[in-house]
Specification:
alpha/beta
């Protein structure tokens, strides 16, 4: 697939464009060493247009300096804010055994080692334990809903990580506090996101706009707790390339990655303070306006037209 822009340009003369959703090397052939990085970068060099979806990857390709034409266009949420037509939050929660006093946390997306599942379990256990996470901790009935399929199929380590997660949940005594929805249609994903009191996405490498699950939480205006980059700014995430910045306490709550105790405290600060929760919900909606699909489509069309006028054919 990574040779397609080169082939199309050389054999057919077609104008080609490639979109990088991230610059991580492929899961396949882990012993290929530097060849994996070369293969990952090849489309940016041979296509007439290379599009990145977040500022970090855009900066990395720009620094590499070999992309023919480079542009930044963010992705949008693949889950529209559209629960079922008859949706009513309190009734939906009651139908699924969630009482008015239950504080429901939501995690959305496949589970793997990069998404902080063990930290999520540690935070859940701390929040449910007496005397941890804040003064009101011993009054909390905290539950977690895992929205969507359990693991993806692209990485063979995912199944092993899921087994570790489930074993750790049982050992911590929180397995019964976790609901797995399995794969559900988008209206039901939307319903569960709205049912939650907070969406928790503790990525090991920090929150990023390449994460569709984060964009879905923002699209739904949910109070969101995520992580900042390891060693990066503790007060902000994202931004750059004209994209807005997630600011701690304004549009999300940020915690350090791989720190379950800190994650628990960040979640507690949302659950225990309705004012903070409302401010984060409003801030999430404001951020989401930058990621609407109509604007994304118009930007693509304009860049495709420019690439065609510029000529080229994808030849190396």
């Amino acid at each position: 697939a990574n040779l397609a822009p080169w082939w199309a340009g050389r054999v057919t003369g077609a104008t080609t464009a490639v979109t990088y959703h991230d610059l991580r090397v492929p899961y396949l052939f882990p012993k290929a060493g530097r060849l994996r990085e070369v293969v990952t970068h090849l489309p940016a060099r041979t296509a007439d247009l290379a599009i990145t979806t977040n500022a970090d990857d855009h900066t990395a390709l720009a620094a590499w300096g070999k992309a023919t034409r480079l542009a930044l266009i963010p992705i949008g949420s693949n889950v529209p804010d559209a629960p079922p037509p008859d949706y009513e939050r309190d009734a939906f929660r009651a139908e699924h055994g969630i009482t008015p006093s239950t504080r429901l946390l939501a995690y959305f997306g496949f589970l793997n080692a990069s998404k902080g599942g063990m930290d999520l379990l540690a935070a859940l256990a701390a929040l449910r334990a007496d005397g941890s996470g804040g003064e009101a901790a011993n009054e909390r009935d905290v539950r977690l809903v895992m929205i969507g399929g359990k693991v993806g199929a692209s990485d063979p380590t995912n199944a092993a990580y899921l087994a570790r997660f489930e074993a750790a949940a049982a050992a911590a005594g929180v397995a019964e506090a976790i609901t797995w929805t399995g794969h559900v249609p988008r209206p039901m994903v939307s319903a569960w996101l709205h049912a939650a009191d907070a969406v928790v996405l503790p990525y090991a490498d920090g929150g990023s706009y390449r994460r569709g699950s984060l964009l879905a939480a923002l699209e739904h205006g949910r109070p969101t707790v995520t992580t900042h980059a390891p060693g990066g700014p503790a007060r902000s995430v994202g931004g750059g390339g004209g994209l807005p910045t997630l600011v701690d306490g304004e549009s999300a709550r940020l915690a350090p990655p791989e720190d379950g105790a800190a994650l628990a405290r960040a979640i507690a600060s949302v659950l225990d303070d309705p004012t903070t929760s409302a401010r984060l919900a409003h801030g999430a909606r404001e951020i989401a306006t930058a990621f609407g699909w109509p604007a994304i489509a118009r930007r693509h069309l304009a860049l495709y037209a420019q690439a065609r006028v510029a000529g080229g054919g994808g030849a190396p």
